[in-house]
Amino acid sequence: MPIDKSINYSEITPEIKELGQLCIDNSSIDPALYTKYQVNRGLRDLNGNGVLTGLTEVSDIVATKMVDGQKVPCDGKLYYRGIDVEDIVKGFVTEQRFGFEEVTYLLLFGKLPTVDELDMFTKQLERYRSLPTNFVRDIIMKAPTADMMNTLSRCVLTLYGYDKAANDLSIDNVLRQCMQMIALFPMMSVYSYQAYRHYVLGKSLYIHNPKPGLSTAELILYTLRSNRRYTKLEASVLDMALVLHAEHGGGNNSTFTMHVVTSSGTDTYSAVSASLGSLKGPKHGGANIKVVQMFDDMKKHVKDWTDEAAIEKYLRDLLHKEAFDKAGLIYGMGHAVYSISDPRARVLNIFIQRLAAEKHRDKEYALYAAVERLAPLVIADERKMYKGVSANVDFYSGLVYSMLDLPLELYTPIFAISRVAGWSAHRIEELINAGKIIRPAYKNVLPHDDYVPLKDRK
Ligand SMILES: CC(C)(COP(=O)(O)OP(=O)(O)OC[C@H]1O[C@@H](n2cnc3c(N)ncnc32)[C@H](O)[C@@H]1OP(=O)(O)O)[C@@H](O)C(=O)NCCC(=O)NCCS
Q: Are 420 and 413 in contact (CB under 8 A)?
């Protein structure tokens, strides 16, 4: 049947409105019942801590320490395969190398690579950096949208059809699929953006082939920019962002999704696509876009960026759902585990100051710093606190990407380019330690009722 162009398929018709109200009326559960049945909402206990649902060796997040037998919040720490991320960063920065490929090796294989192992690994990734024939023309260029995460998912699901061993769950095969995905994510993301830029925004089309020998960060900048040029500092700061987003424990929403979906025995492409769907949410990886949009809105309302009273008023307006997207959130603040500080934000902050100076964006950086200082005080004043809140990684990654002139549409895909490394390590870990299919319980709280024949219903 041909599509009827006179129909607006996005329209909320009166019928849908009425049915929507029926959903609300018949699917709203009394909040008191969650307390009555001691439900761990959001898989958290009553203190807001995540309930234990699995074991992992891939990474560790530390946000508390013991002082005189008491658990107290401390500066956050992140360990990849037992090694402090801040030490990893110091290591490759001192040696003036890029770090993302080394970190990906560490996450996947559980050890730091030797010179030869790192060389072999990067060559393997490079070998996988070629998309199937006509994939760009037939898949990426077709039906481009402003949402690169959806396009990325479409690409991932389509790759299934090109894989002769798509359903093979042996570790070698899954590793091969994961490495291909890690290698291809930068190109699939950037080319999806180029297609959108050309076909939707009406700008020139650039499809630059990958150049051998480039790090993942360099490849992103090289394929994205029309002149293929970037500075060493730009590539290093982007590499740093990739390193810091690569992994964050088994409980973060997209990685837990990976565990849940993998436990059902599904294929790698379906599992990665499910994680992508989770990551794009504004409470997860989509937060970095929201941070930049929130600051754009703040700049319209706070004329003097040094006026702390005006900044504080705007932050309160956000929490009162009176500003920006009226969601009641200060984006880039708070984290489910960290309280005093997020180590990824701390590290990124150091490099961002140099980039801000190179890009003459010091005043904007100062505004971010003021919000970083004021927001935790305002949130603590307005919300029930289980622990402190502080700037999270998305707070500064949004600023980094805007200083690198990356388009907003690529912010979350860049998170995905990095996090697919962590998802891969967790998929392999879930398969190796395969237990039962993940299947928590939901208690029914509706009394049972009789079936009424259609003709007798009112
Ligand atoms: C990440 C996030 C979902 C964690 O929420 P959480 O696990 O409930 O965190 P906490 O236990 O510390 O929150 C305590 C209270 O402060 C609120 N809070 C935390 N961060 C907040 C924020 N940035 N803006 C407004 N309120 C916030 C929470 O909603 C909660 O209040 P509630 O119990 O009335 O719902 C939350 O901080 C958030 O939505 N942040 C903004 C989005 C963001 O930057 N996400 C990226 C995360 S890396």
A: no
Token pair, residue 226, equals 């029309």
pLDDT tens-digit profile of 212-266? 999 999 999 999 999 999 999 999 999 999 999 999 999 999 999 999 999 999 9
| Distance, CA of 296 to CA of 274 (rounded, Å) | 31
**Can you give the pLDDT at residue 61?**
95
CA of 336 to the centre of ligand 1 (A): 7
Each domain of the chain, given as residue ranges in start order, spans: 77-283+409-432, 287-403
Q: Which two tokens stand for residue 412?
A: 């979350």
Q: By alpha-carbon position, which residue is closest to atom 5 of ligand 1?
A: 336
Do 287-403 and 77-283+409-432 have the same topology in CATH?
A: no
Any atom of ligand 1 within 6 Å of the Cβ of 398: no
CA distances for 393 relative to 152, 390, 415, angstroms: 22, 10, 11
Q: Report H helices in 128-201.
A: 135, 148-162, 171-199
Q: Does domain 287-403 have CATH number 3.30.365.10?
A: no
Which ligand 1 atom minimizes the distance to the CA of 389? 12
Residues sharing a CB contact under 8 Å with residue 400, sequence separation 6 or more, in sequence order: 237, 238, 241, 348, 351, 352, 355
Bridge pairing between strands 83-84 and 59-67: unpaired
Fold for domain 77-283+409-432?
Answer: Citrate Synthase; domain 1 (1.10.580)
Question: Ligand 1 pocket check: which of 41, 45, 379, 396 to mutate, most ligand atoms within 8 Å of Cβ?
Answer: 379
Give the ligand 1 atom nearest the CA of 285: 46
Phi, psi of 376 (to 5 degrees): -60, -35
- How distant, in Å, are the alpha carbons of 248, 383, 402 from that of 395? 16, 20, 12
CB of 332 shorter than 6 A to ligand 1: yes
Give the integer Cα–Cα distance in Å for 118 and 19: 57
- This model's pTM is above 0.90: yes
What are the tens digits of pLDDT across the range 329-355? 999 999 888 989 999 999 999 889 889
- pLDDT tens profile 365-376: 999 999 999 999
